[in-house]
Write a structure and sequence with these properties.
647 residues, alpha/beta, Isoleucyl-tRNA Synthetase, Domain 1, OB fold (Dihydrolipoamide Acetyltransferase, E2P), 6-stranded parallel sheet, 6-stranded antiparallel sheet, binds 5'-O-[(L-methionyl)-sulphamoyl]adenosine
Amino acid sequence: MTMPEPFYITTPIYYVNDVPHIGHAYTTIAADVLARWHRLIGEKVFFLTGLDEHGQKVQQAAAKAGIAPQAHCDQLAPQFQTLWQKLAISHDGFIRTTDAQHQTVVQRLLQKLYDAQLIYRAEYTGWYCTFDERFWTEKDVDNGLCPDCQRPVEQLGENNYFFRMGQFQQRLLDHLEANPSFIRPESRRNEVLGFLQKPLEDLSISRPKSRLSWGIELPFDADYVTYVWFDALVNYISGLEYLPPQPSVERLWPATVHLVGKDILTTHAVYWSTMLMALEIPLPHAIFAHGWWTVNGEKMSKSRGNVVDPYAVVDQFGADAFRYFLLREIPFGQDGDFSHESFIGRINSDLANGLGNLLSRTVTLIQRCCQGIVPSSHPSEVTELETELQAAAESLIQETMPHHVRRIEFNRTLEATWGLIQLGNQYIDKTAPWVLAKDPANAKRLQTVLFHAAETLRFLCLAAYPFMPNTAEEMARQLGLSHDFSQALLKNPIAWGDGGSGATVVKGKALFPRIETPAAQSPAKPHPEASTPASKDEDDLIGIQDFQNVELKVAKILAAERVPKSSKLLKLQVDLGTEQRQIVAGIGKKYSPEDIIGKTIVVVANLKPAKLMGVESQGMVLAAGDQEVQGLVTFEDVDIHPGTKVK
Ligand code: MSP
């Protein structure tokens, strides 16, 4: 019997020259989603992340802080570890390049290359960029500036040790040719092929201690430390020697995929690949380079003061919303822009109105109509609507998701998942369980509908889990499912109707409360003189988002009575589709209670409750008129179900 191949995934190891930012969070979240999915489908997973603690950048940061480099690393490491906890990162190993075991492996590999005469010593003169810690040739340097970071370079001549990287150029080209999916996406592969069109130079893998002392000493020359990239790349192998429960280089290597940012693709695709070739170690199966985030259209930088702090985002909006946004907003591989507006837009529309609403209305209806117990389906009541919903849920979990996750297309996976959420919400709108509930003759149909809604959510819970683990757990709790997500729940295909029925649902808090933006709380008031749209200032106009923040819904007036001692206020009981609410409306001069019972009206459903003459009002009705109400907004000639959204 052959063992299934394990899934070994890595992130870059991050420099500890500063606190973590959105870029670090992005790759780590992406790796976490893949790790969680592969565990869910029953694969053996090893997920490695960690810190790159040597080199000039870290030495300089420590000097600036006035402490020893090791103390500086020890101070910063917990900042990363705590963030990963907050972001629900499920890594199996956390490597630090100052770990003694890692240093031993680096030295062993250097010695091996030295003994094989693949490392030699030579005098080299070139233009050195301190920031990038690398030499450039005369033709690379642009007006005395580093072509990569645009900082001034200095001419430096020194003796160094070189790895015969150039010797492996053709082999690397052949490898790229034979393995089209080695570098992904395709556009990045082409960049690497382009880079390899020029002669590949040998790589300086040492730094004299006189210039940089913070690094791993060369095993064959105590006057030098190892170049930080040689040291760092080795982590992908050294970590396997001492971090998994059993040392498992043989079992886990080659890595399934190294996730990296586009800026560090060359070091991975060229330096690391040729190092492995020289060491006679197989190459990883794939290297995937993702794009970069800008912030409000600008490059993120400390000097601009626009660095997105993942701690603050998570504290304000929660880990799952952040995880969702980063992977939904742009295709992995392309650049994207982070803005408060687009983030809040996604929270309100996709998470609150989409997923959160589907869960809360389903749970509420099951509580109200089925004593809180998920009912069973009745085959005689299954129509095309149910068949369509079941087929969509099954194909999401069994086909669409595996297909897109395998190709590292997170946004497509999420689009497909949200397609099912939309279908689920439309299903409830169309089947209108609150109407079915009025007539006991519909009991079987009602049970069938609520069973299908709950079953859709059971499938969605699994689809959401890799991306939003906390949300999936809360969904399972509210649906009364006893899912243990640490188990391989999707190892065998899940079948429709295989769980869920008979579970007791538990109403919980909203999965994603809507975020009220300042604009929504105080909508721009038109100037009195700006009575025609043509003369409005841009400043007086609201964006579509402001309008979307107001949740308008169809409601049916079930009962109405006057508020004592008020000529103007009526107390209404309205049916909102999934719940009944009390609303106090200032329409008493225009209408008497008996005029309006049974009317289908429009209400603002997400208004904070308020008391009017001591009576609680949980919403607002829409009516025409200014000081005096002239008429309620009603639906006269169409039959629209309570709870339907008004847009
Ligand atoms: N230490 C090296 C990696 C060594 S791996 C053997 C390093 N560290 S880093 O901390 O500077 O960067 C880590 C990652 O953050 C890179 O993959 C980089 O692409 C990513 N990002 C930095 N800024 C980013 C954005 N603005 N957006 C997305 N990712 C970005 O490089």
